UniProtKB/TrEMBL annotation:
Family: Belongs to the BsaP family.
Pfam families linked to this entry: BsaP
UniProt KW keywords: Biotin biosynthesis, Iron, Metal-binding
Domain Biotin synthase auxiliary protein C-terminal: 54-79
Taxonomic path: Bacteria, Bacillati, Actinomycetota, Actinomycetes, Mycobacteriales
Names of the cofactor(s): iron-sulfur cluster
UniProt-recorded name of the protein: Biotin synthase auxiliary protein
Function (record text): Required for the activity of the biotin synthase BioB.
Length: 81
């Protein structure tokens, strides 16, 4: 499975689509996430690369989110629990 989304997050790439709303982000526009989302506590709901709605599972110790095209991200990989 693709690891593109995980790689983009780890690299700190600017999202193309807003992870909370799925709307396309205009270039140069600043993304404002809720405090819990920016702290990695809240799972993204949309793939930031393609804007697809992701399959999200929230666990007691974190979350994982999967885009059918860009792969799976687990909050553990982001270094936060
Ligand atoms: Zn995607």
């Amino acid at each position: 499975m693709s690891q593109e989304l995980l790689e983009a997050l780890l690299a700190g790439d600017a999202p193309v689509f807003h992870p909370n709303t799925g709307q396309e982000v205009a270039s140069g526009e600043e993304i404002i996430l809720s405090p819990s989302a920016s702290a990695g506590l809240e799972a993204p709901r949309f793939c930031q690369l393609c804007g697809r709605r992701m399959v999200v599972q929230v666990r007691p110790d974190g979350w994982d989110a999967r885009c059918s095209r860009h792969g799976e991200v687990d909050s553990v990989y982001l270094g936060r629990r």
